[in-house]
Every structure is written in C-alpha cells, then in structure tokens.
Amino acid sequence: MIKTVLETHPENLKATELLGDAYGHQKKWNEAIDAYKKLVDTKPNIANYHYKYGGVLGMKALENKLKAVGFIGDIKSSFIKAAELDKTHIEARWALVELYMQLPGIFGGSKSKSLKYAEELQALSKVDGYLAKGYIYEYDDEPQLAEKYYKMAIKEGGSLTCFDKLTKFYEKKNQPENAIKTIEEAHKKHQRNALHYQLVKWQQSTTLH
C-alpha cells in the first residue's frame, strides 16, 4: 500500500517515513536506512528524521560488530543533529546518553558527555534525567549513586518504568529483599496483576534459596 503511494508520489515524505518505520519494525535495516536517508537529505531540518536515521544505523551496527566502527560517526552526528534541531527531543538525548556510555573511549565514548545529555534531559523532564543518571552510574559501576537516582525517579514520577528500573538494578546486584520490597511498593501504587505474579515469583525463588 505505502509502496503504491510512493510509486505515483515519490516525493511523499509521510509515506517514505511510514515505509522506513515498517522496514525498521521488520528489522530490514538497509531498507529502513535508505528510506530515512532520503528524508534527511530532503528535509535536513527535521529533528525526528535524523533521530530515526541514527537509530536504524545503530541497529545495523549492533547486527554486524565488525562493520560497526564505520557507522559510529554517522550515528553520533545524527543524534546530535536531532538534539540540536529540537531542544525538547527527549529520545535523541536518551540515545546520546546511552551511546556515549557504551562506546569505548577510543571511539569517542565519554561519561562526561553522557552526563551532559542527562542534565539536558533533567531540564526537560526530571524523571528522565534521574533515570538517565541512574543508568550512567549503574553502567559505570557506582551502585550507590545509581540507586539514589532510581529512587529519586520513583519519588518524582512513580511510574511502572521507574519501579522496574530499580527492581532490575536490585536483581543484578543480587539483592532479592530490596527487589521484593520495590515490587511491593509498585503493586501498592499501581495495583497491576502482573506485579502480583512477579512478587509471588520472587518470593518463591527466595524461599527456594
């Protein structure tokens, strides 16, 4: 359907974007890259086009670690461009937080740059800022700071995502009591059945041990 539209109206950017989205959903990274590249070239001042282009380049890089080095520059510049064009683009800033933490220093990885974008996130959304800092400090093996910021995110926003980040942090740190306590708090606040099952599963696993 989308391809039919593009055959008669190749300049239709909305259809091109939808095609890129569809290819991305199917993990057809090369086709998605081509679609988003067309958007970036046609309308270079639209932040979301750069963000999506950087995103599929990143997915392509993850799929082929040997060729990944060749994509790093374009991935980075795409996300930076998206963040520059749209001062409120939360997803692009999140992408930069993660990219700068995960890249080795030789390829431009930088904790200070990651924290810079976490600060920008915090100015836009306190919850996102706290979660980003929790992620940075967890990645950098500073558990006390990671825990502090995940707890601040819960206090500020209290969404299931916030509780989930802290729960998973405790799981990784092998702190089942704290994980259970966090799930209990989340269940009290959100009353979701899934949380109840998660809690039962955790309680069973700790009694087995």
Molecular structure report:
The chain has about 210 residues and is mostly helical. Helix content is about 80%, strand content about 0%. α2 runs antiparallel to α3 and α9 (about 145-155) packs antiparallel against α10. The radius of gyration is 20 Å and the shape is globular.
Instruction: Give me the Rg, rounded.
Output: 20 Å
Rounded mean pLDDT score? 89
Helix/strand-derived category reads mainly alpha
Distance between the termini: 55 Å
CATH class of the largest domain: Mainly Alpha
- What would the principal axes of the Cα set say about the shape? globular
For the report, how would you describe the main beta sheet?
none
Number of strands: 0
Q: What is the fold-level CATH name, i.e. the topology of the largest domain?
A: Serine Threonine Protein Phosphatase 5, Tetratricopeptide repeat
